[in-house]
Specification:
Blueprint: E1 5-12, E2 22-31, E3 36-40, H1 47-54, E4 63-67, E5 70-71, H2 77-86, E6 87-90, H3 104-114, H4 120-133, H5 138-141, H6 151-163, E7 169-173, H7 181-198, E8 201-206, H8 209-215, E9 218-223, E10 226-232, H9 233-238, H10 243-250, H11 291-295, E11 301-302, E12 308-309, H12 316-321
The protein binds iron/sulfur cluster and magnesium ion.
The site of iron/sulfur cluster (SF4) has 12 residues, from loops.
């Protein structure tokens, strides 16, 4: 049975006073079983809004989220509760997301109680299995408090709390960005192992394109609520096509000793969603921008190798009409 969580969302941020802000525009992503899709972009680009819309924590005003090819956008009551069990989200901050007054056992038990799963003996077995999944020994940690744990252990407990309901789909929203760099890789590896062991579909959200290389099969790069580039992770990391992706990649410190670090800075800040530039949304920060870019919005085009990119530089017809343009490929 093939699993799909798919979103094609057009949504507005909270606040009913016009003008409505389009946080996401024509975003279309498919995540399969045992697949980790990376969603990358700077803060404020709409990544978290998309993640929360997928698990129905946030109500999109348009578009659809499909789960097993069925829309979940209008689920109510029992069906919504069941979906909330199957689609879980893990947040960035393992310090504020765990109640400091509850023990680890109680924290992981909470969602089981909310979903009426029990008796207590069965819940204990499920809690032990969830801790086992995240490689934390229940025998020593069940009665510990969050303050007894390191940041990495806390995030593992947050993952166990999500896993205890046996979800099929997990949104991991910046799960390692508040953790010490030295332990980030181990938490990402755990997500990767869990995806394969449990057949989970994972949306991994991050502002850091360097981390998606560890675990993602597929990557979507987002800018101001739009996907600007999408394709297999190894292709995008080896050869980023969109000028925005190229700049995200250039911002990664070069770890090779003695190498000259070519650092191309992104100029300026992300424009606010109320003030989206005409034409290409990236034009106010793009070093390749032409008059065409500031007047005509590029489509997300599929290239011969199947990758998708939203930039006039890769549009053959336009490149012909503007012979001065040289694709940065
Ligand atoms: Fe830059 Fe123009 Fe491509 Fe936009 S369409 S990314 S402004 S070259
Ligand atoms: Mg965010």
């Amino acid at each position: 049975t093939h699993f799909q969580a798919r979103a094609g969302l057009v949504s507005a941020l909270a606040g009913r006073t016009p003008p409505a802000i389009r946080a996401l525009d024509g975003v279309d992503l498919t995540i399969g079983e045992r697949e980790i899709v990376g969603l990358v972009g700077e803060s404020g680009c709409g990544k978290s809004t998309l993640g929360m819309s997928l698990v129905r924590m946030y109500e999109p005003t348009g578009g659809d989220v499909l789960y097993h090819s069925e829309p979940v956008t209008h689920l109510k009551g029992r069906a919504l509760k069941q979906y909330r069990r199957e689609a879980q989200i893990i947040f960035q901050d393992p310090y504020s997301s765990l109640n400091p007054r509850l023990t680890i056992g109680q924290i992981i038990e909470e969602p089981l109680k909310i979903h009426g799963i029990g008796p207590a003996l069965e819940r204990r077995a499920l809690i032990a299995r969830a801790l086992d999944h995240v490689r934390i020994p229940a025998s020593t940690h069940l009665d510990s408090y969050p303050s007894d744990l390191s940041g990495g252990q806390r995030q593992r407990v947050a993952i166990a709390r999500a896993l205890v309901l046996e979800p099929r789909f997990i949104v991991a929203d910046e799960p390692v960005s508040m953790l010490d760099v030295s332990i980030q890789a181990s938490v990402l590896e755990l997500l990767d192992e869990l995806s394969r062991e449990l057949g989970l579909a994972v949306l991994y959200i991050s502002h850091d394109i360097a981390t998606v290389g560890y675990i993602c099969n597929h990557v979507a790069v987002m800018y101001l609520g739009q996907i600007v580039e999408e394709g297999p992770a190894e292709d995008i990391l080896a050869e980023p096509l969109h000028p925005y992706t190229q700049r995200l990649m250039a911002a990664i410190p070069n770890m090779t000793p003695g190498a000259v670090r070519s650092r191309i800075e992104l100029k300026g800040d992300v424009p606010s969603p109320q003030n989206i530039p005409p034409g290409c949304r990236f034009s106010s920060r793009c070093p390749f921008a032409t008059d065409l870019c500031t007047s005509v919005a590029p489509e997300l085009a599929t290239l011969a190798d199947g990758r998708r990119v939203r930039c006039h530089l890769y549009d053959g017809a336009i490149a012909e009409a503007y012979p001065g343009l040289t694709p940065p490929r």
